[in-house]
Amino acid sequence: QTYAPKLILLDISDIRCIRDVAKEILNCYGCVDILINNASMKVKGAVQSISLELDKKIMDANYFGPITLTKAILPNMISRRTGQIVLINSIQGKIGIPFRAAYAASKHAAVGFFDCLRAEMEEFDISVSTVNPTFICSYHRQPAPGNWEASIWK
Question: Which molecular-function annotation in GO is an example for this chain (predicted)?
Fold first, then answer.
């Protein structure tokens, strides 16, 4: 069956709205066959210069966002005993490099979660994959004076 596309906006770092968006998707289409988690935020800076607030924002976008969306879609896949979940992550989920501590930590956490999920979902015939590309060109906002978000890459 063919469905008309539907655009649903989602800020993956806003954990509070993710379950509602997942519910909207499931109400519209009835199921999700393939979930591709591909949103990400990164920041470049020395550990001592990155605020805890920014560390948390990076963790929300790169770890809590994808797992919250996955957990919202997962019961539907389990009940149907089919589905595929993909995490587009980063090589920095396997190795850390200087000036990327918050980003690397969030990507390491995501790898750990999805590795465990893969093992748990085997009995339900749900495939869980993690893709860890090397460095990619990302959109970057130009810095604004005194704005901590200036160093965020999306």
Answer: oxidoreductase activity, acting on the CH-OH group of donors, NAD or NADP as acceptor
